[in-house]
Design a protein that fits this description.
By secondary structure, the protein is α+β, with helices and mostly antiparallel strands. It folds into five domains: 225 residues, no CATH class; 100 residues, Calcium-transporting ATPase, cytoplasmic transduction domain A; 132 residues, Rossmann fold, CATH 3.40.50.1000; 113 residues, 3-Layer(aba) Sandwich (Calcium-transporting ATPase, cytoplasmic domain N), CATH 3.40.1110; 141 residues. Helix content is 58%, strand content 14%. It is built from 26 helices and 22 strands. It has a seven-stranded mixed sheet with strand order 10-22-21-20-11-18-19, sandwiched between helices. Strand 1 and strand 2 form a beta hairpin. Helix 13 crosses helix 14. The protein is elongated and about 115 Å long. The two termini are 49 Å apart. Keywords: ATP-binding, Cell membrane, Membrane, Metal-binding, Nucleotide-binding, Transmembrane, Transmembrane helix. InterPro entries: ATPase_P-typ_cyto_dom_N, ATPase_P-typ_P_site, ATPase_P-typ_TM_dom_sf, ATPase_P-typ_transduc_dom_A_sf, ATPase_P-type_domA, Cation_Transport_ATPase_IB, HAD-like_sf, HAD_sf. Belongs to the cation transport ATPase (P-type) (TC 3.A.3) family. Type IB subfamily. It is a multi-pass membrane protein. This is ATPase P.
Length: 768
């Protein structure tokens, strides 16, 4: 039998026997059978004495002072002075305390236990064209699997065909299903909430994301928390104090009953039960937020942190670069540049290639099928596209040095990466890519400062100009760029020498730094296995704000643990004083101690309940609005680049082409963008005012709406002036100003809304 289950059954039997004996004795007493009632209560006392003595011996074997010794002395004393009712009440108290403790810890660990209880044991692997049920351990990278509706994804992989609708609530705590298209990576542990789909495994089940979460859940125990160890030390000091008080009361009064009464009310159950229950409740609460904490010690250190160190790529930024601009070389067309690059990069697995292919798809470009594609790691990819030899990657020997110098300068100013495209040996253009700051990053850092973080440091191996641009936006205290893994470890150790330090990262090169920190936090949703294993905390959702949620829970759990233990001990000390003075007989003291036990356990379990902490409360209706407008943003962002491209190229092709491009921009602005902004003004902003404390909080956003509408009207007037005759030369400068202004205001406005509003939503973000 499982040892934990056996202990639970023994506790249940002890509780049943002691309660039955107490009730039976009470019935006999009321019937006038006083002697028989005393005999039953004495038997209950003896029954309770045996396991209590065993608990003391077990504690001594483990090198700890058995604080249950007070209960043993109280039971023995009750038998000695013939206070059998008090002895029976103590027996019920001990059994009830044990049952309450087991229930509290079992309930608190329920969310963690659910993680590994639902781990997949089998998979449906295609063999000879047919899916066959096989043990999950035999799945290997490259295997094609079928995931039926309602079943759990058995291993990390990519959607082989069609699309998959996945319920990731067990991993992330987010209730909304997420749709993944063909070629998109998915994680094990998610449940198929749609039709059956095929999955190409990229890892074994043992190396997959969910297996790492399961390992962490098995390692999670409340007993290692410093506050729990402090409670043990405090309770050990309480034993001699209790014996001294009981002995003094007996000596001064000459009545051994007073000593027994002191022992009865002195049993330190409040201290022993409250701290583990509150810490275990906190571990359960963080699991519901999509955060797995490796033990109560890590949870408490997280709540005590004063310094936050963060890796940049994949932590503060999305880790998925996007195309921010396509600049054609003289004589080339930007559309052709992106089309050719996407055609060649379709065959590459590089993260920048994925971004280029995604950008072409978003702009409605269908790349032709290339041939002879060759990928050279560290250099780029080349292939034959529509009769042209296209190379995508690093720049070759410059044939337009001045143009290339200008593009490099622009990339440095924008903090962008460059991918150069050549056709038949001549430069065709350059594609600029940026890794955007996470929408929830700035709000998360503000929340963590509110929660007690005093210093924020950003580490990155990236170029200083790129790192500084991110640091300025987020307001970090120090930026360390160009860092090697060894440099990161040294930086983290310097910070841990000053204060309790949390390090957050997601890559293989972050693992040593995570291990060096007081609390290592891994972005486990897309992070490496090495970083997940080195970390003390894993964010199973790809959202940095869950770290702030976990810190809120950690601080609250520790506060409740200390509060419950201190209040319980204070009440016990007052009861001891009353018992020593002869004001509280043993039976009444036992009842009072039982009430104290129940009170502190119930208080400790408050840590299970949700609390908003530093996160503003968002109701379901408002969260639905946030998701709706967030999805709108994801569809509106790509066309924003059309505005800048139109401004860049205005005047290069005078006549109908310029006019046609401007009309296309105007149709997008009036047909899609302005209706979105007006809907936000009338639906989203009033809801945000209620969440954030009044309509004033949305005034700056409303002012941006007004400016956007003014610039769109200005563009419309220019088109009216142009008529069918085309643009006049004197219009070009003002049109460029209008377009550049629109592009800048829209980008800033979108970023502000995503940071200030959309980051408040708890639900899943749809993958781009």
């Amino acid at each position: 039998m499982n040892p934990g289950r056996a202990a639970h059954r023994a506790t249940a039997v002890l509780l049943a026997v002691t309660v039955a004996g107490l009730v039976c004795g009470g019935a006999l007493y009321l019937a006038g059978e006083v002697t028989a009632a005393g005999a039953v209560w004495a038997a209950v006392t003896v029954v309770a004495l045996a396991p209590a003595a065993w608990w003391v011996v077990s504690a001594l074997r483990g090198g700890r002072v058995g604080v249950d010794a007070i209960a043993v002395l109280a039971l023995g004393g009750a038998l000695a002075v013939r206070e059998y009712l008090a002895g029976a009440l103590i027996g019920v108290m001990l059994a009830t305390g044990r049952a309450l403790e087991e229930h509290a810890l079992r309930r608190a660990r329920r969310d963690l236990t659910a993680l590994y209880e639902r781990a997949p044991r089998s998979a449906r692997r295609y063999e000879d064209g047919e899916p066959r049920l096989v043990p999950v351990d035999v799945v290997r990278p490259g295997d094609l699997l079928m995931v039926p509706a309602g079943e759990t994804v058995p291993a990390d992989g990519v959607v082989a065909a069609g699309s998959a609708l996945l319920d990731e609530s067990a991993l992330t705590g987010e209730s909304l299903p997420v749709e993944y298209g063909a070629g998109r990576p998915v994680r094990s542990g998610a449940v198929n909430a749609g039709a059956a789909f095929d999955l190409r495994a990229t890892r074994t089940a043992a190396d997959s994301a969910y297996a790492g979460v399961v390992r962490l859940a098995r390692e999670t125990e409340a007993a290692s928390a410093p506050v729990v160890r402090l409670a043990d030390r405090f309770a050990a000091w309480f034993l001699p104090v209790t014996l001294l008080a009981a002995g003094t009361a007996w000596w001064l009064s000459g009545d051994p009953v007073r000593a027994v009464a002191v022992l009865v009310v002195a049993t330190p159950c409040p201290l022993l039960l409250a701290a583990p229950a509150a810490i275990a409740s906190g571990l359960s609460r963080t699991a519901r937020h999509g955060v797995v904490v490796k033990g109560g010690g890590a949870l408490e250190r997280l709540g005590q942190a004063r310094t936050l160190v963060l890796d940049k790529t994949g932590t503060l930024t999305s880790g998925r670069p996007h195309v921010s601009g396509v600049v054609a070389a003289p004589g080339a067309d930007p559309g052709d540049v992106l089309c050719w690059a996407a055609a060649v990069d379709r065959m590459s697995s590089h993260v920048l290639a994925e971004a280029i292919v995604r950008a072409a798809r978003e702009r409605g470009i269908s790349p032709p099928q290339p041939s002879g594609v060759v990928e050279r790691p560290g250099t780029g990819t080349e292939g034959l596209v529509e009769g042209h030899r296209v190379e995508v990657g690093k720049a070759t020997a410059p044939s337009h040095p001045e143009w290339e110098r200008v593009q490099r300068a622009r990339a440095a100013l924008d903090g962008a990466m460059t991918v150069w495209v050549t056709a038949d040996g001549d430069p065709a253009g350059v594609i600029l890519l940026r890794d955007t700051v996470r929408p929830d990053a700035a709000r998360t850092l503000r929340r963590m400062r509110d929660a007690g973080i005093e210093r924020v440091v950003m580490l990155t191996g990236d170029r200083p100009e790129v790192a500084e641009s991110v640091g300025v936006v987020l307001g970090v205290d120090r930026v360390l760029a160009g860092q090697t893994p060894a440099d990161k470890v040294a930086a983290v150790r310097r910070e841990t020498g000053r204060a309790v330090t949390v390090m957050v990262g997601d890559g293989v090169n972050d693992a040593p730094a995570l291990a060096a920190a007081d609390v290592g936090v891994a972005m486990g949703a897309r992070g490496s296995a090495a970083s997940t294993q080195a970390a003390d905390v894993v964010l199973t959702a790809d959202r940095l704000d869950r770290l702030a949620d976990a810190m809120d829970v950690a601080r609250r759990s520790r506060r409740i643990a200390v509060q419950s233990a201190a209040a319980g001990m204070a009440m016990s000390l007052l009861a001891m004083a009353a018992a020593a003075a002869g004001m509280l007989p043993p039976a009444a003291g036992a009842l009072l101690q039982e009430a104290i036990d129940i009170a502190v356990i119930v208080n400790a379990l408050r840590a299970l309940r949700p609390a908003h902490g530093t996160r503003p409360a968002v109701d379901a209706a408002t969260e639905s609005l946030l998701h709706r407008f967030e999805l709108d943003h994801s569809s509106l962002r790509p066309p924003l680049e059309l505005i800048r491209r139109t401004a860049d190229e205005l005047g290069e092709r005078p006549g109908p082409e310029d006019l046609g491009r401007l009309r296309e921009v105007h149709r997008f602005l009036t047909g899609r963008l302005l209706p979105h902004e007006r809907a936000e003004e009338h639906a989203l902003y009033p809801a945000m005012g209620q969440v954030l404390g009044g309509p004033e909080v949305t005034m700056t956003m409303s002012r941006a709406h007004a400016e956007i509408e003014r610039l769109v009207r200005r563009l419309g007037r220019h088109l009216d002036l142009a008529g069918d005759a085309g643009l006049r030369p004197e219009q070009l400068d003002d049109l460029r100003s209008c377009l550049y202004g629109l592009h800048a205001v829209l980008l800033l406005h979108f970023d502000q809304e995503e940071e200030a509003y959309f980051s408040l939503a708890l639900g899943a973000r749809s993958p781009a």
